[in-house]
Structure formats: C-alpha cells, structure tokens
Batch of 2 targets.
Target 1
Amino acid sequence: MRSSYRRNRWGGRPPARLAAVTLALAGTLLAGTACAVDADPADPSAEVVVPTGSASPAGATPAGPTPSAVASPPARVPDTLRFTARTLDGTQFSAADLAGKPVVLWFWAPWCATCASQAWTVAELAPKYRDTVPIVGVAGLGEQKAMKDFVREFDLAGTPQLDDRAGALWRRFEVVEQSTFLIVDRDGKLIHQGFLDGEDLSRRVAALAG
C-alpha cells in the first residue's frame, strides 16, 4: 500500500486537479509574457494623452490670451475746458472731451474783415491738427444765418464752430474784441489770449503738436 502511494505521488501520473492547476499557471505566465512583449514603451501610442478641456498638470501655465494692458485713466478736465455748447449745425459740444490736448479757441464775428482774412489759415490748419491741437471756433456778435454763411464761404465746416450768439463764452473768457485766439496747453493753462496773424498761428500750432 505504501509503495503504491509513493509511485502515485512522485513517479506516477499526477492527479487531474494538479494537472489543471499546472496548466492554468502556465497559461497565466504565457499571457503575462505576451503582454510584456506587446507593450513597447517607445511606441508613441502608449503615451498618456491629456484630453482637451482636462485640467493642466500642476505648475503648468494654462494656455490663453495674455491679459490686455490696463487702459490709461482719463485726463483731468481743467477749469478752462469745463463748458458745453452747441455748434452752428446743432451738434452738442463738450470741451471736456479735449482734456489732455492743447486747444485753440478762435473768437470771431461774421462781419469782421480781420476774421475773414484769418479764416483761410484756420481752414487749412484745423483738419491737419484735428487730433493733436484741436481748433474750435466761437462765433458771436451776429445772426446765426450770417455765421453759417461765413462758415460755408471759408470752408470751416471741418472744425467745430460754436454758436455763441448769447455771448456766454465771450464773457466767460473776457474776450472784448474779434478776432481773438485763446491757446490752452495740454495741462489746461491759458498761455495766450489775443490777436495772431496767420504766420504766428501756424507756428504756435505746429510747436504745440510737436
């Protein structure tokens, strides 16, 4: 009985349960070996791909537009430019919109011969320096129709022409005669008030623009 047991245990055919376990273990080892061979680390398809919209890795800077520069604060409005009016064509005008720029105010009357002689220079300069040294006409001492005819005759429509028939701005700036030019620098300081011929006006405006 003992010798028969030994033959079955060591030298005989293994029991069926042991054979099945052995076969299963061998299959597992073979499968693991196959997986190890098929998974090639150098294969790009095996790399981890972050899907679009997923969180970025820690420490990474998310892609996106660079924040825009902070806009400059609006210029301080000086007392000299704290007024509003209407132009001869009925448009609302606010001098505060010109803050931070040199400004020329030209006080004229439609019947003034001196004003007529300077109008050509103003008509030439105003469009050229519109964005750097605005020239604003202040019409007074006359009727609106005559003022509009003056603007049309001398081609002054390209620059604001204020309707000051009531004389409010003339009194505010203490203008007592025409033609008078007021020059306000970019800080709002009044640097000239009085007569200017065409050559002087051109020179001063060019200097302010530069």
Target 2
Amino acid sequence: MSRIKTFNLPDLGEGLTEGEILAWLVKVGDTIELNQPIVEVETAKAAVEIPAKWAGQVQAIHHPEGTTVEVGTPIIAIDTDPGAGPLEAPSTTATPSGDLPTPSAASLAAVEVAPAEGMIEPGLIGGAAPGGRTAVLVGYGPRTTSAKRRPRKNTVPAGAAASAGVDHGVVVGDKPAPTPTIPAPQVHDRRRGASGGASGGVVLAKPPVRKLAKDLGVDLATVTGSGLLGSITREDVQAAASGASVVVAEPIAATAAPSFGADREQRIPVKGVRKLTAENMSRSAFTAPHVTEFLTVDVTRAMKALDRLRGRREWRDVRVSPLLLVAKAVLLAVQRHPMVNSTWAGDEIVVKEYVNLGIAAATERGLIVPNVKDAGRLSLRELADALTDLVQTAKSGRTSPAAMSGGTLTITNVGVFGVDTGTPILPPGESAILAFGAVREMPWVHKGKVKVRQVTTLGLSFDHRIVDGELGSKFLRDVGDFLTDPEAALLAWT
C-alpha cells in the first residue's frame, strides 16, 4: 500500500465548487494525527477547518495561503508511515537522448495518485459511508453535476496536478515532471493571540495583505504590525517596501482605512460571501414578486415583560433581548398562518410543517443567514440559548455551511443599526422575511392620552406568488399583536 497519500480539497456541501485557502495550520515536516485540523478554507458560505484524513507526516503543501482551489484539487501530501524510513528520491541524471529521467519503480510505488473524480476512497470524506450514504465534511452530500470551471492564473499544469505532490516531484504518467515550487505556507497557531512580526512567531495578516507583500517582495516576518492584535496591514507592507519606518501605535479595534490607487479608486474582488450574497439577492429580486408592508406598534409591555423575565432566577444567566420576543411572535404567527412558511416550486407550493428560523447576521466576511433548526419545537428558554449560540458563532466567523442551509423564514434585525425598518429581499426559497426596527421612545396615544411609549416598526416582505395581501397583512398583524401584549397573545393562542 502506498505510503504517500494526497488529500484533495473535499466537497464542503451545498454544491460549492471551490474554496480559498485562508491559513495552513501545519507545515512540511509536521507530524499530524487523524482528524487534526490542517487547513482553514473559506467558501462562499463560511470559513471552515478541514481535518486530516490520515495520521502521518506532511510531505508537501501544494497551494499557498490566499489561493483559490477547486473541489477535488490536491492540496497536501501525507506520508502515512514515516517510521518506515526515508523515501527514495528519483535519479536526476539526464538520459543520452535528453529526455527527462525515468522515475524508479520504488519511487512510483511510494506514490498514491489522487483518485479521479467520483473515485474517492470508501469511508472517507466524500466517499461512501456504511449503509450506502456519502460521507462529506459539511452539508448534505457531494456535488454530482458537472460545474463550469474558469481558468486560473498560476495553477499547476494538468500533468503535475495528477501527481501525488511529494517533494521529489514523481509523476505517474509517460514522463515525470518536477513538482512546482510553492512558497512555504505560514502556519497559524490559534492559541497565540499576538503576532511575532519582526520579533519572530506567528505572523497575523489577511490574505490580501499577504498577496500584496508577495507582489512587492516584502518578507512579512520582518514587518512589525500596527493593526489589531499586532496584525500587519497594507500600510505596514507598503511602508516596508518603500523603506520607511512604521510607528507602531497601541492596537485598536478600528479597521484600517482603505488603500486607493493613483486614480483614487479601489477595486475589491467579488468572491466568497459577497459573491454568493450578490447572486442570491439578484436571483430573488428578479424571480419572486416582492411586496412589503409596514406596521408600527407599541412594544412597551413587551419590554417590561423582558425585564421581568431577566429578573427571574432561572433566567439570570440567559441573554434576553427584544429579538427573542420577535422570534417567538413569528413562530406563533406561522402556526396561525402556515402558508407564510412555504416555498414556490414551479408547479406546486411546498408548505413546511417545520420552521428553520433564519437570523440575518452582519459579519466581517459579509452578510450571512444562519438558522435555528426546527425552532417551532423549542421552548422560550431553548430558543434564547439557540439564538445566543447562533449570534456568537456568527461573530466569531465559525458558522458552518450546514448552519446556513435549509432556512424557511428569516428575521433581519436592522434596529441594531439604529434604523426604523427596511424593505428586505427574500432569501432564495423563502416566502417571507421580517425586518425588526429600532425600539424608540416616542409620543403615542395610550388610553386616550398622549404618552411617551416604546415603539418599533416592522417591515414584512413576502412572495406575492404564494402570500396574498390578506394573508401577509394578517401574519404581520399577529406579530404586532404579540409584541403589543405578549401575555394576552400567549393566553389567546396557546
């Protein structure tokens, strides 16, 4: 059995066909364990850590950080039996005819060629699991349809891509070819919070900054970062390239100002989450006929109910926010108007008995919409815990593609930005999305007198192919009624 195994970028689920290598967590020569995280990859939906399929020693890393690679592309080679002795290197002596040297039989035997598409080893990521299922890292299964692939710059030639990628460059085929020279990747240790920079240690820099440094010929290990946690910014790299010294200030949370060219224009590549968001929003806006309705409600009683809930002993360690009551209101309103929780499927409408409640979240990577699975079955306490976990995971950038799949109805809390409401665009496959605006103290007629009350505005967008104006209005009215008097609504509806 071959010692050298080549690990291809696996299908990360939901039909994703490529990913960008954000950070290598190992380097050539490292001894790794089975299922040890070896690389962090950013897809169009999330940044995920990919575990090792085998234990052993890292022999080669085929793509540096910042490279976008397609699913099925070899990314790392692992010696699964490093204790068996050194690998035999091929002879480099040219033949009299001038042809490239023929690899030895021992070298060829030591190499396991990456399986062809659809020929993944059983029981491993992307291969057949017990019971005939397909084992994948994240999501519901590998993509079975062909995808259009665009040509890439600086990619490995087809002949080299079929190699096992060991550092002595053996290729199975008619003629051997040397393995392309790849810069040694920077290994990131997540347990360390500071950047070594010029003083050694871990270098903290985003992929665009690393690319800029490579283009300008700047060694990041010699640069002292001035960004957050000592991270290296574009300005640090540009200053190092020009020979200017950088004054390091105390790290602050503010983002660095954008860098503009001589034409005072900045060009930002559209990829990852931004690309997926653009595609989804465009498809939804020009496919589903949107209608948006608004409702302004007095939520004073709801805010007082939250205060009483926070004061209860069993709720003192729970994060209680207005979003919790809005989510509960939506779930109860769905029970009364189930058609709102449905999907247009061409010649039929699919009404769902379950509610995977999406919560739009603004992250550093862009807008994502993870969802709480089967939220309608959760108690209020369970719902509060699920929302807290969802938000914290999104803020840390660890939301998985599976957590963003299968949503049926969404809430977008635009009130956290201090705005009153909006006209949200439907996520593809959903028939309704609710915008929850800021809660403000405003003059309000209450019991015949003008008083200062806590007021918010709700905005409901819905797919008019499924949801008629009457249904949408009743649904929005029920959400508003619950927020106006949650205790009375619970007694009346449950």
